[in-house]
Automatic annotation (TrEMBL):
GO CC annotation terms, alphabetical: plasma membrane
Domain Ammonium transporter AmtB-like, chain residue ranges per copy: 24-196
Subcellular locations according to the entry: Membrane
Bilayer-crossing regions: 24-45, 52-74, 115-134, 141-162
Coiled-coil features, chain-numbered ranges: none
Topological relation to the membrane, as annotated: Multi-pass membrane protein
Protein name: Ammonium transporter AmtB-like domain-containing protein
Family that this chain belongs to: Belongs to the ammonia transporter channel (TC 1.A.11.2) family.
Length: 221
């Protein structure tokens, strides 16, 4: 018995697509994105002195926006695309319409959903690094740091561990919650950057032992 014409699989509803999985993946990704914007944007603008509030908030906001551009431009394919070398994928754009509707490398969902899901985690990783640099880094330097670190650090760990073709993945390394790719890499990067940037902490002559009164959160008036 054949199905009615309106129930036959097509490009909008291919036979491999699980609408429940796809819906939850999109919901989970959106919740993670909300941790970054507006979550960490507000937090970072609230825990520093008033003179640093705008700079700190914009460090988080810029990281989120810049990672999106880099991610669809080359970052996703370097993290989850075709193998280039054993720890990195081939750089390529992820905006081709046919590519976006194809099944992702994992799960019953399209590449478009996986790109979005992985983007919010890449973005929050950079924003976590920013938390160690509040009041320590010039905004222009941060604008250069974000795409460079995403390209030459995050993509390598993501491909090595999360991509099925990655060398650590093939050795059986499993990272379900991002403990290595997100938290360890952002922690090491943040610690290193804060250490080397410690001489710049005192823009106004303060040292790290001085208690700095924080700026109230924007909603606390």
């Amino acid at each position: 018995m054949s199905l009615p014409s309106n129930l036959n699989p097509d490009e909008a509803s291919p036979p491999w697509l699980n609408k429940g999985d796809n819906s939850w993946q999109l919901t989970a990704a959106t919740l993670v994105g909300l941790q970054s914007v507006p979550g960490l944007v507000i937090l970072y603008g609230s825990i520093v002195k008033k003179k640093w509030a705008v700079n700190s908030a914009f460090m988080a906001l810029y990281a989120f926006a810049a990672v999106l551009v880099c991610w669809v431009g080359w970052g996703y394919r370097m993290s989850f695309g075709d193998k280039f070398i054993h720890f990195l994928g081939m750089p390529n754009v992820s905006l081709d319409a046919q590519y976006l509707i194809e099944q992702a490398f994992l799960g019953y969902l399209p590449n478009a959903t996986m790109i979005y899901f992985q983007f919010v985690f890449a973005a929050i990783t950079l924003i976590l690094v920013a938390g160690a640099l509040l009041g320590r880094m010039n905004f222009l330097a941060w604008m250069l740091f974000v795409p460079l670190w995403l390209t030459f650090s995050y993509t390598i760990t993501a491909y090595s561990i999360w991509c099925p073709e990655g060398w650590l993945s093939k050795k059986g390394i499993i990272d379900y919650s991002g403990g290595y790719v997100i938290h360890l890499s952002s922690g090491v990067a943040g610690f290193t950057a804060a250490y080397w940037g410690q001489d710049y902490f005192g823009w106004d002559g303060l040292v790290s032992t001085v208690v700095i009164p924080i700026q109230s959160a924007p909603m606390h008036r």
